Amino acid sequence: MLVRAVEATAFGTNCWVLATGAGEECVVVDPGFGVVDRLREVLTEHRLRPAAVLLTHGHADHVWSVTPVCRSAGTPVAVHVHPDDRYRLADPLATLDPGLRHMLAAQFGPQERWQEPEDVLDLPPAGAPAALQVAGLDLVVHHTPGHTEGSVVFAVAPEPGAGLLMSGDLLFAGSIGRTDLAGGDPVAMARSLREVLPRFDDATRVLPGHGPTTTLADERARNPFLRAVAAGQVL
């Protein structure tokens, strides 16, 4: 499997590109601020054709480049998002405080404008994990509220040795996503960590929304938040 990361120019968001191999269709996950040019280089280098854009949640730092990425694909590309975060695509900056909006305008210039994607498909709502087949990949979608109402993770069927988990802002190396932003819920976050992560074995490679990759073995051994959840403590 071909896996590449493109780091956004704000907040260090990881935009992930996954494909079965070079010269094939691919999925683009969480295209944040300023990733368009570098993403184009990765796609050109590996002769990849985007088949879908997947969003782990609707925060601006994970979705800001979604419309130009979809439009640059040559053929119509749909955006997949959980219905509970669908409203965020109308204006991803709406829930940010004025100071942060000012900072983003200063960094990206007043010409930076949001355009909502044209083709948006709802991921399955809350309930059992759901299968999603795209670009030759067998994915499983798990609803993981806590960071936002509609946060999800995408699991990729195991490669030889280990599967992949695109964890968004549910789980990072040594940490977890914030629950103090609009739509966040520490009780829901603890429940998502407690109910979803045990479905995956220790060898699972974690591709997080921010920061370096990790494994579930490392996080179960060292992540203080996972240990707190396992002990029944409040986050």
From TrEMBL:
<dbReference type="InterPro" id="IPR036866">
    <property type="entry name" value="RibonucZ/Hydroxyglut_hydro"/>
</dbReference>
<feature type="domain" description="Metallo-beta-lactamase">
    <location>
        <begin position="12"/>
        <end position="210"/>
    </location>
</feature>
<dbReference type="Pfam" id="PF00753">
    <property type="entry name" value="Lactamase_B"/>
</dbReference>
<keyword id="KW-0479">Metal-binding</keyword>
<keyword id="KW-0862">Zinc</keyword>
<protein>
    <submittedName>
        <fullName>MBL fold metallo-hydrolase</fullName>
    </submittedName>
</protein>
<dbReference type="InterPro" id="IPR001279">
    <property type="entry name" value="Metallo-B-lactamas"/>
</dbReference>
<keyword id="KW-0378">Hydrolase</keyword>
<dbReference type="InterPro" id="IPR051453">
    <property type="entry name" value="MBL_Glyoxalase_II"/>
</dbReference>
